[in-house]
Each structure stands twice: as structure tokens, then as C-alpha cells.
Amino acid sequence: MHSIHFTVLPPPAILKNEVECVRIAEHRGKEAVTIQVSPTGAPGMVFHHHNGHAALEHIVTHSGRSFCPPPLFLSGPVIEPSVMTYKQTAFTTVQVIFKPCALKTLFGINASHLAPGWMGPQECGALDLTSQLMEARSRQEQMTLLTTFLLSRLKQEKPRDMLIEESLHLIHAHMGSLHVRDLLNTFHLSERQFERRFTQAVGLTPQAYLRVKRFNAAIHLIKTRRFARLTDVAAALNFTDQSHLIRDIKAFSGLTPTRLAGQVDDFYHEQTGYAFV
């Protein structure tokens, strides 16, 4: 990603329970940029612009869905790769990566209604924020505006589902060994009850969320070259077998394992997931 400079900022302390991080992408060239993005299962808020205009031309998912988002939009969690095509211009993108339950806790949204998809500023109460961000004279001013807006949403006291938040903690801590049935046994819920609550809060089913997170963990292991064979990566993350891992790599990256291994050094990664130009 030589033509784009990425900066990852920690969340404001007061929003640490709702925000994972903030990623800023700056492109100073004039050529069009295309970024291939793998899913992370996380929602977010994205602001993209160049001199007061939208910088994104369109986003196309692996299944063929295409949309042209406004300069500021709320994005739901997705479980398929996508291609983001920017206009032939310099641009700046500010992406607030939310915690999995933030659509519900900040906006009171049933996350399943926004997965996969996006919501414009008018629908999420951020119509004035778009113009304020456009007029901001610095990155710091933009961050202050975003923080103030999100704090105003937080103060409206949306209900939290603490059981689902605890289940997410267990998933992240024991990704390589945990199954959905383990969560059902831990929380003494039926599969139907747990899936309904998880999907409302996160936007994905528990199984889909686990698959996406294990895929990201697998790419991390492949990048670090900790294991020489794909079978060892599959075993480390408790995939049924190598074929299971291969299917998920193809589903979530759009690449075969051979091609992915050849390009893995070009993958950019932090808390926001994996992407490459």
C-alpha cells in the first residue's frame, strides 16, 4: 500500500467500551485507488472526502452488491470481501472501528438490520456532522467532532446486553478452541435464544462471527510464518481440517490459499482487519 499512508489511533478513553480504534488513510496522489478489503465482522462509521466532496466512487462486494455511499455513513458488519474504488484524486478517509455491539449501544439499532449494508447521516442522526467534518481545518478538529457526536449518542443510555458482551469476550479470548455449544452451556440458553440476542446486538450469527474472527487469526498466523504448513494453521485454530480453512480463505478473501500466501506480505493489518491494494 505504497500510495496510501495509514495511521491507527487508539479510541478516546471515554469511548473505549464502544470504539476499537480509529484508522486514518491519506492518499496524496492523483491516480485512482482500489482497495480489496476482507471482512472483520465489526461495524463502523466512515468519513471520506476531498475538498468537500465524496472520495469513494463505489463499493462492490464479492456477491456483486454495489453501492455509492455518501461522505459520512454508518457501516454494518459484513462477512464477505469487498472492493473499495476511490476517485482519481487525493483523499482522506477517517474510519471509526466500533466494538461489535456498538450499533446497539450507541445508536439503538438492531444490528441485524444493518448487516450487511450502510446507513446515511440523516438516518443515524448525524446530518449536521457531515458539514462540520467537511469544514474542519485539521485532523484533530475532525476527531473532536466525531468524539463529541459519539458521546452524545452514548449519553442517551441505550440498553446493553451484558450476556452477549461477555460471550464476545470469551470468543476473543478462546478463539482457537471455542464452539457455539460451549457458549450455550456457559450461559444456559437455547441455541435459538442465544442466536436471536447475539444477532440483534452484533448483526451476525454466533457461528458467522466465529468464522470471520478465525479467518482473521489464520491470516495473522500465515503472515507471521509461525507455521510452515496450512494444516498446522488449521489445527492451531481448531478448524475441522485443512479443507475447512481453505473454504473460509476463499470465502473471506476471494483468493486461493496459494495466491494468498504469495500476496500475504502485501496485506495491511491492524485492529481494522486485512486489506491490500
Automatic annotation (TrEMBL):
GO molecular function: DNA-binding transcription factor activity; sequence-specific DNA binding
Keyword DNA-binding (UniProt): yes
Keyword terms: DNA-binding, Transcription, Transcription regulation
Source domain of life: Bacteria
Record-annotated HTH araC/xylS-type domain positions: 165-263
Family matches, as PANTHER family: HTH-TYPE TRANSCRIPTIONAL ACTIVATOR RHAS-RELATED
Protein name: HTH araC/xylS-type domain-containing protein
Biological classification of the source: Bacteria, Bacillati, Chloroflexota, Ktedonobacteria, Ktedonobacterales
